[in-house]
Amino acid sequence: MNSDKMLTRIGGLLRQAESTDNQHEGEAFMAAAQRLATAASIDLAVARAHTAGKEKRATPTQRLITIGEPGKKGLRTYAELFLVIAAANDVQCDIAQTSAIVYAYGFANDIDVCEALYASLLIQMVRASDAYIKSGDYRSETTVRTRIEKRGRRRGAADGNRRVVTEVRRPVAGVTARLNFQLAYAARIGQRLADAKKETEKEAVSVPESSSETAIVLRDKQIELRDYYRENSQARGTWRGVRAVAGHSSNARRAGDRAARTARLSNAPELPAARKRLPQ
């Protein structure tokens, strides 16, 4: 199956997943789409290894993915969602400190899959977090904040002022709840995609007549991508990511995890990923 037909087929699964209100059907379509994407990547890798000399052999490429405008709220969790999707689809990434741009390195078909998955899952994540915030459930939770105060000189003290550290318990803010929800959502999506990828590859290499060939091709693909990334990446420093999120909300994280467990996983270029700019 060529890449166009593969992506069209995945697109059909996406439409079915997003149009159903049945949770179990949505999960089934989503899992099928990710299995197909992973299996297609394996098939394409095998095809690359056997491409006739007259045909141009597919090689890794680099693509710039725009997450959003610099300074826009929520970009770190949006970027985190793309990164976990990429990790499950053989795509390596560099990311700008602003979290506004991701530089994706991989085979074009794999990057297409990532963009399509991201476009669908981002909509679902934002919609689910909006619903959670509107529910007001996070307001029942409080969080501890550390406050440092400077007070007057103590008699005999060497320094001019003394610092007093106190802990204050305050209600969880809406922005804190939203970021924690989306952080947990992205983490669970990453785990689900990784599990689907692992299971599909396990099945692929278990076929007696092609297990050795498939394993070799998969390994060659990893090496080729690793070498391409090392030669072309200009990354410097460390992305702060969601570590910069202020505050913690256990309730929001649990809600985000639950939402991601039932999220519809699938992808297709003829849907949102066909756009050059991803939705905000």
Characterise this structure.
The protein has 280 residues and is of the alpha+beta class. The chain has seven helices and five strands; from the N terminus they run H-H-E-H-E-E-H-E-E-H-H-H. The chain has helices spanning 3-19, 23-49, 75-87, 108-135, 174-205, 211-232, 250-261, and strands at residues 61-66, 92-95, 101-106, 142-151, 162-171. It has a three-stranded antiparallel beta sheet. Strand 2 (92-95) and strand 3 form a beta hairpin. Helix 3 (75-87) packs across helix 4, helix 4 (108-135) packs antiparallel against helix 5 and helix 5 (174-205) packs parallel to helix 7 (250-261). The protein starts with a helix and ends in a 19-residue tail after the last helix. Mean pLDDT is 79; it is low at 50-55 and 267-280.
Short description:
This protein is an alpha+beta fold.
Radius of gyration over alpha carbons? 23 Å
Terminus-to-terminus distance: 33 Å
Q: Kindly report the spatial arrangement of strands forming the biggest sheet.
A: 1-3-2
**Total number of distinct structural domains:** 1
Quickly count the helices: 7
- SSE sequence, one letter per element: HHEHEEHEEHHH
What average pLDDT do the residues reach? 79
Strand-residue fraction? Answer: 5-15%
Sheet with most strands? 3 strands, antiparallel
Number of strands: 5
The best one-word shape is globular
Structural class: alpha+beta
- Please bin the fraction of helical residues: 40-55%
Poorly predicted ranges? 50-55, 267-280
